[in-house]
Amino acid sequence: MKRISFFLIGSLLFCDTKIVPFAVFKNYEKKSFIKSSKLSGFLYSNKNFEFSFSKTAGEFKEKFGKFYQNDYTLLLKNKNMKYGIHFIDIKNYENEMILIAEISKNLQTNKIATQFFYTFSKNRYIFQFSPYFENYEFIKDNILNYFRFFIDFIKYKDNFLAAGFKNTIFYKKFYFSFEFEGGELIEYIKDNGHSVYNTQDRVKKIFTLSFGYKNLNLSFKKKYFKEYLGFNTSNRIFSISYTKKF
Question: Could you tell me the pLDDT band of residue 35, with boundaries at 50, 70 and 90?
Answer without folding.
Answer: confident
